[in-house]
Design a protein that fits this description.
Length: 256
């Protein structure tokens, strides 16, 4: 059969020749991300601040309880750096085989220190949310107020000499409204879940800003210095909060 619409030397993309896995985990996610980029009118700044080689830790603020920020950020990084980002995500994804398999195919890896160090020692680009679930599950009344950073990302950077790229994601706070953070301490100690107002994302305008990379001037043996790790994490958190405040004040409403 002759394709009269095909240009000379142009490859024909045959969607029917793809496997179910390729459709589910490659074609559909890319299409969905492109739709989201348009829907959120996404703006990106600071791509030049992402090192092109070597071990890199991308540390964004976390917001929007559905985790769209992780998916969209991963897609943007892959598009613009030509590197495959590894996203360290909540352990709830890996509780069952039914959720763990799609998570792994999407490039998600369970967030813990060992996994982070293993990936960085292989010179990967790793995305880690230092606020954890307390960031994206916090109530909207606390939007753009960073929650306490866990120190794991500092120890990972010290152990592997990975550069840290603080990253700001604006828009997810307005996309999903969270009424309250629910804590389950009696039967499920430590489990935190959101109480959402909406499931379908609101048309907020998104902006992702990659700040200048940080190289920690300390040797790997400092990973056991808890006071130093705490101070470094706090300093980076405070600097990110100042940048968030500055950008939010210029941005105005998240919907226009």
């Amino acid at each position: 059969m002759i394709n009269f619409f095909k240009k000379p030397n142009e490859k024909v993309f045959n969607v029917f020749a793809l496997s179910k896995d390729e459709l589910l985990y490659k074609v559909f996610p890319r299409l969905f991300m492109e739709i989201l980029k348009k829907y959120f009118r996404l703006e990106i700044e600071g791509l030049e601040n992402i090192p092109k080689t070597g071990a890199v830790l991308i540390i964004p603020n976390h917001s929007g309880f559905l985790g769209i920020d992780a998916l969209l950020l991963s897609y943007i990084l892959q598009q613009n750096t030509k590197r495959i980002p590894r996203v360290l995500t909540h352990h709830l994804w890996f509780l069952t085989e039914k959720t763990a398999l799609p998570a792994q195919k999407l490039g998600f890896i369970e967030a813990n220190y060992e996994n982070g160090v293993k990936l960085l020692k292989k010179n990967n680009l790793v995305v880690l949310f230092p606020e954890g679930e307390h960031g994206n599950f916090k109530p909207t009344s606390k939007k753009y107020q960073l929650q306490e950073f866990k120190r794991g990302f500092i120890r990972m950077s010290l152990a592997t000499q990975a550069q840290i790229v603080p990253t700001i994601v604006l828009g997810a706070e307005e996309t999903h409204i969270n009424l309250k953070k629910l804590k389950f301490s009696k039967f499920l100690r430590g489990l935190v879940l959101p109480l959402p107002l909406n499931i379908l994302p609101l048309p907020a305008k998104w902006k992702i800003v990659f700040l200048k990379p940080i190289s920690l001037p300390f040797e790997a043996n400092k990973i056991n210095d808890s006071e130093l790790c705490h101070e470094l994490a706090l300093e980076i958190q405070e600097d990110m909060q100042k940048s968030i405040n500055k950008i939010v004040s210029r941005r105005g409403s998240g919907y226009f």
